[in-house]
Amino acid sequence: MFNFKGMILVTVLVAVAAGTGCTTHSELRKEFMVDVVNGDYSAAEAKLLEMGGKKEIDFFVDTCDMAMVLSRAGRFQEANDYLQKADDKIKEYFTENVSDVLAAIGWNESTAKYKGEEFERNMVDLLHAMNFLSMGDYEAARIEAQQANTKLADFVELLRRNNVTTGFVSDPFAYFMTGLAFEAAAAKEGGEQRFNLLDQARLAYTKALQDYQGVGGRYGVEIPAGLPADVERIKAEVCNPQDMPASGTCKEGPSATEIIVVTGVGQIPHKESLKWIQSDGQDNIVVTYPEFFPSPTAVEGAKVVMGGTDYVTSTVYDMGKVAVEVNKERLDQLKDKAIARAMAKYVAKKAARAAMNAGNNYGGSGGGWAALIGGIVSASIQIAEAVEKADTRSWMSLPNRYTMARIPVEPGIHKFNVDFTNAGGMTVSTIPVEANVEPNSKTFVVLYSMDRPGVAMTRKFGPGMEVEVPPPAAAQGEAPAETQM
Known about the structure:
The chain is α/β, with parallel strands linked by helices. It contains 13 helices and twelve strands. The protein has one domain: Serine Threonine Protein Phosphatase 5, Tetratricopeptide repeat (Alpha Horseshoe), CATH 1.25.40.10. 51% of the residues lie in helices and 17% in strands. The radius of gyration is 27 Å and the shape is globular.
C-alpha cells in the first residue's frame, strides 16, 4: 500500500536539507583563488566568467573579485568598469528599506544578497582610486578615495539606528589615498592651483594621521612609517602661517620627482562558519556565526630593487587586522539578535515535540496526524540546524596588506624589479617594471604579490608607456550579470 504519510515526511526533510545547503559557491571560489594567489590571472578570469554572477545574491562579491583579478593583471580600465557595477549595487542595497541590521550586513544570511563588509565596500572606491592612480588620472582617483568615508558614514548611521555601535567610523587609508591623489595632482600644476591642491593634500594627510592614531589604533592598524613626515613636508610646501611645520621653515621649489610603488601583499583572511550550541538535554539552541581566519600565503613582504639599492616597502594599510577585529566587535553586539532567531527555532521545536507527544497520547487517526506533523517539524528543524552554516562569502582576492615605497628619481624611464619576499626576507617571486616619470611629477606603480616562484612579465607604468598586459581569458561564459538567477 502506498505510504502517503511517509512520502510527505521524506519530501519535507529533503526540501529542508536542500534548502539549507549553501557551500557550492564558496567551494568554487576557493578553486579560483588558487589561480589568484599564484598570479595566473587569465585562468582566474576564466573561472570567474564560468561561475560568476549566476545568482543575484552573489553578484556583488563575484563582481568585486573580477575587478580585483583585472586590476592585478594591469587591466585597470576594465577593472573600473566592474567596480562601477559593484558601486551601483551598493547604492541599490542601501537605498532599500533595511530595518534589520542582520539583513543589512548579510550576517548569518547565506541565502540573502551579499552586501559586503564595511572594509570591502570601502575597497570598491579605494581600488577604483588606485587604478586611476596607475593610469595617471589623479582627479578621478581623488573623487573615488573621498567617496569611501562618505559611504561609511551613512552605514555607521544605519547601525546606530539599529542600536549597534562600531569603532570603524572612518577609514584612515581612504584619507591617505586622498592625500596622495591631491599631492600628485598638485605636482602637475603651478601657481595658485598648485598651492590649493597641496593644501587639500595637507588636510587629507592630517586627517589620515589622526585616524591611524584613533581608529587604526583601536584595531591594531599601525601608522604608515612615512606619514608624519609627509604631513610636515606638505605643510612646509604650503607655508600656511596658521599651520606651519614643526621646523618653522617653508620649502620653496617644485615638487619632488618620484616613483611611488604600492604593493598588495598576501591574501585577506577568509571566513569560516562556527556554531554555538546550548542544550537543555532534549533540544538545542543553535547559533551559527562567521569568523575570519588567516589565509596562509608564501609572501609576507615586498621590496623594490632599483639601481643596486633595495627599498623595503612599509605597511600603509592592514586590512586583515581590520577584518578580524571589526568582525569580533560585531559578533559581541549582534549575538543577542542571532540568539533571538535561534530561540524562535527552539520554541518551534518544543511546540512540535509537544504536538507529537499529545498526538501519541490522543491516539486514533487525528492523533496520528498530529504526531506525524509534529515529528516532521521537529525533524526538519533538527536537519536544518545540522547543515546550517553562517554566511562565509567574502571578497577573497583582496590582499592582506597594502605596502608602499616612495622613491625619489631623476626624470625618464626607470627599469627595476619588485620582489615579493617570505617571512625570512627571501624572494619568492619578481615582477620587472618599466616606469616613465616626467620632471616634478609622480608615477604610481601598483602591483600584487604572487606565491608562484619565478619572474613575471614586465609591467609598464607612466606617461607614454605602452602598457602590456596578459591577454583576456577566452570567452568561456558571460560576465557577471545581475539579472541571472
